[in-house]
Design a protein that fits this description.
The protein is mainly α and 203 residues long. The protein contains 7 helices and no strands. It comes from Streptomyces brevispora.
């Protein structure tokens, strides 16, 4: 038995023309055989999903920019210089209670022991002992350069403490010329205190 061919689909009948001044009616949407395109995270039609909290999130969103750091309190800012000064005072208290003028309390300078030459630090402990007891003249007689160093440190420490209390950083940068100058002063001091005319600088 022969199958008769199905009749062809009749073309759509055009509707009446639109009235003047009106937009034409939209035509039928074409059918798609395949699946609809999807955008990021499976959003239909390639559109980005609306922003919202992640799954399982409760509460407001975290801020886009982190909050400004809370400034440290004044007590915390001065903790550094106060700790350094506490260590220095502890060292002076120990040297002041254990007399370096008595033998056996501290090791002997190896340069003085084997060569008989005073190094720049010889007499430093005795000068610290004299400073701890308030005898500045004896401290200069033991090691004048060490006493000058104590004074420079005291000035720098006061500057550090004042700036730390005001919340300002303190930074001291020594250039190569400064190191060369310090080395030259130490060398001249060492040479002079070992010569006969510089015996006043010897401990």
């Amino acid at each position: 038995m022969d199958a008769s061919p199905s009749p062809a689909a009749a073309p759509p009948t055009p509707g009446p023309p639109p009235a003047p001044g009106t937009a034409p009616a939209p035509g039928p949407r074409p059918a798609h055989d395949g699946p609809q395109p999807s955008g990021p995270q499976g959003a239909p039609g390639g559109r980005l999903p609306a922003p919202g909290p992640p799954a399982g999130h409760r509460g407001p969103f975290p801020p886009v920019f982190p909050p400004a750091p809370v400034p440290a309190s004044r007590l915390r800012r001065i903790a550094g210089p106060a700790g350094v000064m506490a260590g220095i005072l502890g060292a002076f208290a120990f040297v002041g209670s254990v007399d370096p003028n008595e033998p056996g309390h501290y090791p002997v300078c190896p340069l003085l022991r084997f060569t008989g030459i005073y190094c720049p630090g010889c007499g430093g402990l005795r000068s610290a002992h004299a400073v701890a007891h308030g005898d500045i003249a004896a401290a200069f007689g033991s090691n004048a350069l060490a006493v000058i160093g104590y004074g420079i440190f005291a000035v720098l420490w006061v500057l550090w403490m004042v700036r730390a209390a005001a919340g300002k950083p303190t930074r001291i940068v020594l250039k190569p010329i400064h190191w060369w100058g310090i080395g030259a002063v130490l060398m001249i001091f060492t040479i002079v205190r070992n010569l006969p005319f510089g015996s006043a600088l010897a401990p």
